[in-house]
Amino acid sequence: MAVVIADAGPIIALAKINQLPLLPALFTEVLITRAVADECLHGQSADAILIKQALDSGWLRCVDNPVFKHPLSRSLGLGEQSSIEYALQATGNTLLILDDALTRKQALRKQLVIVGTAALLFAAQRKALIANAETVIAELNQAGYRISAAVIAQLKNRIA
């Protein structure tokens, strides 16, 4: 079983459209670093409350920020850096849930396995957890979380 580590963007995005329960349906446990938790729980928004409830329920688990041992781009935020670093130090297989293009590029350079929110939604559709991934992606776009048409087309081609 892979260690699943999420960055703040995908967690916040799924919370904004009330789709956070897809994560425990796809994975037993999802880890976030303290830096990611701080980013997710900032303020009293509805999505922050849902994320706090996920942490309280136990499937979303906060871990301490790792000690940084690998050079990473200074352009990345602390949450992004800590997620990549945690994955690099984890034993066994890891899966990083990331959407930011620069962060994905850094993770791939470190030979980490990554997946984005859109790919998770298509996986949820394949498992009949949601009826239509594209409909949920449209909701994300309306909520201000952009997933490009090129990414959607690529994922659709993969399952065709």
Question: Can you give a write-up of this model?
Answer:
The relative contact order is 0.18. The chain has helices at residues 8-16, 22-26, 34-40, 46-57, 78-89, 101-109, 117-126, 133-142, 149-159, and strands at 3-6, 30-33, 60-63, 94-97, 114-115. 53% of the residues lie in helices and 11% in strands. It contains 9 helices and 5 strands. The chain is globular, with a radius of gyration of 15 Å. Helix 1 (8-16) runs parallel beside helix 3, helix 1 (8-16) crosses helix 4 (46-57) and helix 3 (34-40) packs antiparallel against helix 5. The chain starts with a strand and ends with a helix. With 160 residues, it is mainly alpha-helical. A 3-stranded parallel sheet has the order 1-4-5. The model has no long low-confidence stretch (mean pLDDT 92).
